[in-house]
């Protein structure tokens, strides 16, 4: 079983400055025999420093974030977390999930003890060594108050890690985080006699050297699977590994698809309701137009009737006036 590995180191000013050449790959040659310079282009940052000199970046962030605290030569200026697992784990989950693993780890550290992304000096993922890993360098910042009782953010490596068994707590929290995000890893093992492990101990724990030669052979004899049958025949899975490496991932993807399908059905129902509502509005509009036309016809007929009656009235008045003139003439002649 692979382990979820997170390790923390504290650094003084001089030690912090020496981190950058390795982490940021600014040197032409490295003593580390595991670095493959032909793959360095694959390395990437989750947060890239503006200055490749970590002390300059430290000063920039200290001023930008208004960080307080008195520092001297032996003070803790920065800490670094190295986050990884073993190569077999990363090979099994593939590139996309590997990137997700480091993104989740980065977010975890940014939120750990209210640290904040703004206090990260650099977070770089190295893919040019045998096992993928992330170097996350940060300023250990804690909430505090000044002499006047005002809230401040203060640089304090001791205060940041002052809890009893603080590294064990870090391992517990990180393990909970990766398991919650569906990475099938075991919690990193504790050594009660020390708080952290050296790089060589870390490589030994992750079975680094044992898998190194194995994966060289595996890469030479890599197989392109054309069907589930060929996949199973090649791997010769046990029932447990079939469940963990095949069925569980398939069920996980199936659940995601079912969830997405449910959401699509919901959206489709909303669209259907909208279409029906639109049709109802169209029908109502047609009815109103027909009603309006009918009323307009009736109004025109009424107007024509009134006009005709008015004409007839005028004709009648004209006849009466003519008759009245005639009667008056007869009356005068009679008299």
In short:
With 335 residues, the protein is an alpha+beta fold.
Keywords:
8 strands, two-stranded antiparallel ribbon, elongated, BirA Bifunctional Protein, domain 2, 56% helix
Contiguous runs where pLDDT drops below 50 for at least 5 residues: 192-197, 218-225
What characterizes the major β-sheet?
A: 6 strands, mixed
Number of helical stretches of at least 4 residues: 10
Class computed from helices, strands and strand pairing: alpha+beta
Would you kindly provide a written description of the structure presented here, covering whatever features stand out?
The chain is of the alpha+beta class. The chain has a domain at 3-222: BirA Bifunctional Protein, domain 2. It has helices spanning 13-17, 19-23, 54-64, 87-111, 157-160, 166-180, 199-205, 208-220, 228-235, 239-334, and strands spanning 3-11, 44-47, 78-84, 120-126, 133-138, 141-145, 151-155, 186-187. The strands form two sheets. A six-stranded mixed β-sheet has the order 2-4-5-3-1-8, sandwiched between helices. The longest helix has 96 residues, at 239-334. 19% of the residues are buried.
């Amino acid at each position: 079983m692979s382990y979820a590995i997170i390790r923390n180191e504290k650094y003084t000013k001089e030690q912090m400055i020496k981190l950058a050449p390795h982490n940021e790959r600014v040197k032409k040659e490295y003593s580390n025999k595991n670095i493959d310079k032909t793959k360095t282009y694959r390395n990437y940052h989750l947060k890239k420093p503006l200055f490749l000199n970590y002390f300059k970046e430290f000063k920039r962030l200290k001023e930008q974030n208004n960080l307080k605290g008195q520092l001297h030569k032996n003070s803790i200026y920065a800490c670094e977390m190295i986050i990884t697992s073993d190569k077999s784990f990363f090979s099994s989950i593939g590139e996309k999930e590997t990137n997700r693993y480091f993104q989740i780890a980065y977010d975890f550290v940014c939120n750990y003890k209210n640290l904040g992304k703004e206090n990260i000096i650099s977070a770089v993922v190295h893919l040019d060594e045998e096992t993928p890993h992330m170097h996350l360098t940060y300023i250990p910042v804690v909430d505090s108050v000044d002499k006047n009782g005002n809230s401040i953010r203060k640089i304090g490596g001791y205060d940041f890690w002052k809890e009893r068994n603080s590294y064990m707590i870090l391992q517990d929290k990180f393990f909970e985080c990766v398991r919650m995000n569906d990475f099938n890893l075991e919690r990193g093992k504790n050594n009660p006699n020390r708080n952290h492990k050296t790089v060589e101990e870390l490589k030994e724990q992750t079975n680094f050297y044992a898998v190194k030669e194995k994966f060289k052979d595996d890469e030479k004899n890599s197989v392109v699977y054309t069907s589930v049958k060929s996949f199973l025949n090649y791997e010769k899975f046990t029932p447990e590994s079939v469940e963990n490496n095949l069925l569980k991932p398939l069920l996980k993807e199936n659940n995601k698809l079912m969830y997405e399908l449910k959401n699509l059905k919901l959206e489709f129902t909303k669209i259907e309701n909208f279409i029906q509502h639109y049709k109802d509005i169209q029908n109502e509009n047609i009815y109103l137009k027909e009603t309006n036309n009918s009323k307009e016809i009736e109004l025109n007929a009424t107007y024509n009737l009134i006009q005709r009656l008015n004409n007839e009235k005028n004709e009648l008045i004209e006849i009466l006036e003519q008759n009245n003139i005639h009667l008056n003439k007869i009356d005068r002649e009679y008299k």
